[in-house]
Every structure is written in C-alpha cells, then in structure tokens.
Amino acid sequence: MARIIGVCNQKGGTGKTTSAINITSYLGLVNQKTLLVDMDPQGNATSGVGFNSEERKSIYDVITGKVSLGESISKTQWPHLYILPAHISLTGGEIELVNIEHRESQLKRELDKIREDFSYIIIDAPPSLGLLTVNVLVASDTLIIPIQCEYYALEGVSNLLHTIDLIRERLNPSLEIEGVLLTMADFRTRLTLQVIEEVRRYFGEKTFNTIIPRNIKLAEAPSFGKPIHFYDYLCVGAKAYLNLAEEILKEKIDVNSLVTQMDFQRTADQRA
Q: Is 215 within 8 Å of 241 (Cβ atoms)?
C-alpha cells in the first residue's frame, strides 16, 4: 500500500516543487513505483518532469468528478515514475469544490482507490492554505515542509502548523510531519548558518539531516523537463536529493546502480 507524502508550505519560493520532483525521481530510480500528484494550478511539477498537461486529463478533472483516476494518470519517461498532472483550470477547482459534499476529502477518496498500485504517492501542494492544500493535508500520511535558508525563514510556518493541528483534530488524526527540509542554503553566509540553527532548535529531530544547497543545476533542470539526476547527476544538488531519498527510505542507495539507469535513459533518448 502506498505511503502518501505531501510537500507543503504556503509560502512560495521554498523549493517545494523542486523537492517533490526530485524525491519522486529518486524513489523511482530505486524501483519504487511512485506517483507524483501535482495539486498546484501553476503545473510546475508537471512540466518539471517533461509532461505536457494539455495532452491528458488533469487532477482538476479528477477532484471535480469529471473523469476517473485511470483516465488521468500517465507514465513519464523516467523509471517507475507516474504523473497525475495539473492544469491551469485547477485555479477554479477550489470554487467548484465548495459545492461538493465532504469537499475536504475529495482527493483522499480518489487516491485511496489506487493506493495498492503504488509504493509512494508524493503530492506537490499549492503555495496557499486554501481548499486544495486542505485536500492534500487530509489525503497525506506524512508531510515534508521545505523551508528556505533566508531571512524570515519561519515566517508563516506557525500558520501551517496550526492548520495541520486542525486537520488532525477534525479530518486526519494520523497526519504526521515526515520532516522539515532546509533548502536554498548558501553555506558561505552567516545567515544560512543562523537559519539552520534556528530551524533545528524549533523543530528538533523533525528536521532532515540533508540540507539542499543553492545550485544552478537545480534551477536549470525543470526548464529541460528533467529531474536533477537526469540533468546532472554529479552536481551537489543531485547528491543532496539522493541523500534525502535515503533518509526517507531509511536505507542506503547504490549510486552505481543509479548511474547505470541514467546511462540507459540517455541511450534511449539518443535512439528516439
């Protein structure tokens, strides 16, 4: 049965979508059948794995009851990685959900139908605390909260934690925090070190050991529709997300095996 992990922070620019894409990629690379659910109307997770949402039905069509999940889930070109894409039409999804009974649980009801088909389901939540994000919180078993290593890093996090507490009380009592992920770290600055210290003091053992650095390759990869491993597996950003995947899996990953799979994919691209 799939473990469902939501990647949430109502503050934009925290590396949320980058993290969702690369976590799913590495899980797929170790032969874990993984579904990436894009719940952000911007659709950046969808395009970030090289998928064109115009070609298929989207999560909007699923949560509004227009189509089944089977009509919307697609295999990506990356190993064991599937996508439930987002489309700009999802912008109006919150308005339509208002009139649906048990609207907060619409995503959960749909994902429960396919939990047996995947090992992991990773959900990229929108940068808000609206109804779409509430659906993510209700559907998830655990949450990853990305926090950028910048000034006001914890600004707004208390609102997210309060919302999580309300969801636990009323809709999803088993919801837990998988971990807090520090992102966009520039270890040359004193500010980054101060933020790391502050976040670890605030969240304690819930903070991942892995810290995602600022890395130009991580910023470039989505424009090519590639997870970082398939863009530059030797860069520091790729190594950081590999370490993060190991923390989530709680086991070491054979790097040599991953490189072999990447070479196989490059050969397939050249033949296409």
A: no
CA–CA separation, 234 and 190 (whole Å): 27
Task: Provide the CA 27 distance to its chain's centre, in angstroms.
Answer: 12
Cα–Cα distances (Å) from 141 to 16, 39, 144, 176, in that order, read: 17, 16, 10, 7
Contact by Cβ (8 Å): 15, 184? yes
Report the distance separating Cα 162 and Cα 147, nearest Å.
Answer: 16
* Cα gap 163→134, rounded to integer Å: 8
pLDDT tens track for 38-83: 999 999 999 999 998 776 788 888 888 888 888 899 999 999 999 9
With tokens 């950003």, the residue in question is: 237
Domains and CATH numbers, the chain: 3-271 (3.40.50.300)
Q: Hey, what are 92's tokens?
A: 């109006």
Helices 157-170 and 131-139 pack at an angle, to 10 degrees, of 60
Rounded-to-integer distance, Cα 149 and Cα 154, Å: 9
What does the alpha-carbon distance between residue 257 and residue 262 come to, in Å, rounded to a whole number? 9
pTM: 0.92
